[in-house]
Amino acid sequence: MRISDKIRSKLSREARYLGRELGYALKFKESFYRKARGSRIMIYHGITITDHTRFNPIFLRLKTFESQLKLYKKYCNVISLDDFYNQRFSQDKFNICLTFDDGFANNYKYVLPLLEKYQLPATFFVTAIRDAGYDILWNDFLGIASKYGPEILHYNDEYYHKDRFQRYISAGNKILLGEKLRSAGFEEKEEMMKQLYPLVPFRETGINEDYWLQMTVEQIRELSDSPFASIGAHSCYHNDLARISIEDAIKEMVKSKRFLESVTGKPVNSFAFPYGTYTREVVEEAKKAGYTQLLAMDFNFAGDLVDPAMRERFTVNPFISPINQLHATITRKYEKYS
Known about the structure:
The protein is of the alpha/beta class. It has helices at residues 3-25, 30-35, 62-75, 81-85, 105-118, 138-148, 177-182, 186-196, 202-205, 217-225, 246-264, 280-288, 322-331; strands at residues 38-44, 47-48, 60-61, 76-78, 94-101, 122-126, 152-155, 158-162, 168-170, 229-233, 270-272, 293-295, 310-311, 314-315. The strands form four sheets. Strands 1, 4, 5, 6, 10 and 14 form a six-stranded parallel sheet that branches. The model has no long low-confidence stretch (mean pLDDT 94).
């Protein structure tokens, strides 16, 4: 696509977004949201006050999130994950189920008070990284290291430089460091964090904890105690279960379930696959581990659609307005370049 075509397509998409906002503000399009029917499970991650895309494109500003909750409260029937699986749907509104991945402390800090304010339920998929003695996930650590580390990195006998997205890519085979590590076990990721931390001592330099800090055991317990929150598992170390050995994947699913049940004192029956990836073998082993609710993003296999344990989810877009997000949620699609 030529540069002129890209510019024209971008302007067209932005015009559609703006038109939708104006139409809603002028009450022309409100009936679309009131008449919408169906259901959707939403994926959120971290919530920050400002600069929500500093390290990745999956965080959302607190102000935007609260505006979304107001729209959900006005036009939708927000239900728990259990109710979603049991198909306790409203026939008069669009049904929404809220889920949060990764176990960020900002979920406890910002999300829980808003759930209680608006009396809306959500499920939080938490790793067992605290049980391993860490307060940060490896991929968030690498995001910080990539942003604040040197332009050229010498790591494990290879040289890496930053690409235009500030990600470390190998000088030789042009593979992203994050992609290499995603296929590795936690031991290699742990070694990476030990080696690179002196280059970016973010705890000492005071980089905002909202971007990386995991919930403490006590915060997980308090979150679980809220009538508006439930806890699900998200592996131990945020490894890609489709890339590591099945033996290690089983250990992660079993260990994370035991850890969270010991913390909350409640059964943990739901599991969200890190990165949304899985294999058929991982799915079957998750069921053997005692999980009855398995959450992906997009289904990988034809049989997933009729598997009573499996559900797809829809990821929130942090770059669009709340009303455009609600429209995309209902239609299950985002605007593309035309």
